[in-house]
Specification:
Number of helices: 12
Distance between the termini: 21 Å
Shape: elongated
Strand order of the largest sheet: 8-7-6-5-4-3-10-9
Structural class: alpha/beta
Strand content: 15-25%
Bound molecules: iron/sulfur cluster
Length: 357
């Protein structure tokens, strides 16, 4: 399948009201943004800056940090000056931390209506955010829903109701720099919640599956949940929550977007599952190609195929490819066969062709 053909199936997006977080456009027709969250101690500004810089390298476009206490809020100013991407403060329980974070110069706030509910406290935060034109994400989480709500209702309805109530409060204060998220661990619950709220509000949606687990299972849960929503046109920013280093979240986020043709970011690797026809140490070759491709920023398609059945077809369709044979590899570039090399030279020859693109 050629690129034009696959692009024809790119999902149609729900067009939300656009806003900016630290210069990054969110919603409307802006590209879907990949976010992550640090797992360093925010009070340790040096370690947090170091991690954010690494995430910037991986393409992270917005970063959120936990602000559990005043010391963490105080560190935000320093963190902000040490990084390039927009900084969002994640606030729970204490509205005063949100006020301190705004003073520290953050570009966005995430508030949880499940644990900051008093109107006068929220009002103080909203007015301070409005003064600085800082957007607020109303971030609902199935695990921390408001205690006062009707527990006989479904979790998705309870998340929606809590979000709508908070939105009403922000709108009553003439504040519309709003982003919303409704995350649950349960994938169908999350999809249902986003699907329903998408028709009720004009604001951008931050999507993700919360507490989705280790990369092995979490990437699958997130891909199913986030992928389904994106295919329905829902979602303006994404975060793949993983019990891992956040670089894994960023990489997985782009892979989800790339798989739906919604973003280009670095290479796409096409490799066959191998079978009894393979006559080279194929998994080793693919692993090596994978490692080498990490450094490549170009949005190219690289095909590594185990034999001559589908090999030449897929390899020829990619920007660069190899179709392996008995201890050999036929190297292709832009559909043309360029050389036949020994097994030991396959990775080097393939990467040399990547360099030439
Ligand atoms: S490309 Fe060849 S080796 Fe790979 S799975 Fe298909 S038939 Fe098997």
């Amino acid at each position: 399948m050629n690129l034009k053909e696959s692009r024809a199936y790119t999902p149609k997006r729900r067009i939300s009201r656009q806003l900016e977080i630290g210069g990054v456009k969110i919603g409307g027709k802006a590209p879907i943004v990949v976010q992550s969250m640090t797992n360093t101690d925010t009070r340790d500004a040096k370690a947090t800056i170091k991690q954010i810089k690494e995430l910037e390298e991986y393409g992270c476009e917005i970063i959120r940090v936990a602000v559990p206490d005043v010391e963490a809020a105080d560190a935000l100013k320093k963190i902000k000056t040490g990084i390039k991407i927009p900084l969002i403060a994640d606030i729970h329980f204490d509205y005063r931390l949100a006020l301190a974070a705004l003073k520290g110069g953050v570009d966005g706030l995430r508030l949880n209506p499940g644990n900051i509910a008093e109107r006068d406290k929220i009002k103080k935060v909203v007015l301070a955010a409005k003064e600085r034109s800082v957007p607020i994400r109303i971030g609902l989480n199935a695990g921390s829903l408001p205690k006062t709500d009707n527990r006989r209702l479904s979790v998705s309805t309870r998340m929606i109701n809590a979000a709508l109530e908070q939105i009403k409060l922000l709108e009553s204060l003439d504040f519309e720099l709003i982003k919303v998220s409704l995350k649950a661990f349960d994938v169908p619950t999350t999809i249902e919640a986003y699907k329903k709220i998408a028709d009720k509000i004009p604001y951008p949606l931050h999507i993700g599956i919360t507490e989705s687990g280790t990369p092995r299972t979490g990437i699958i849960r997130s891909s199913v949940g986030i992928g389904t929503l994106l295919y329905m046109g829902i979602g303006d920013t994404i975060r793949v929550s993983l019990t891992s280093h956040p670089r894994e979240e960023v990489t997985a986020g782009y892979e989800i977007l790339k798989s739906l043709n919604l973003r280009e970011h670095g290479p796409i690797l096409i490799s066959c599952p191998t079978c009894g026809r393979t006559e080279v140490d194929f998994i080793k070759i693919v692993d090596e190609v994978c490692v080498q491709l990490v450094k490549v920023k170009k949005p190219i398609k690289v095909a590594v195929m185990g034999c001559v059945v589908n090999g030449p077809g897929e390899a020829a369709d990619a920007d660069v490819g190899v179709a392996c044979g008995k201890g050999k590899g036929i190297i292709f570039r832009k559909g043309k066969k360029v050389s036949v090399v020994e097994e030991k030279d396959i990775v080097r020859s393939l990467m040399a062709e990547v360099e030439k693109l």
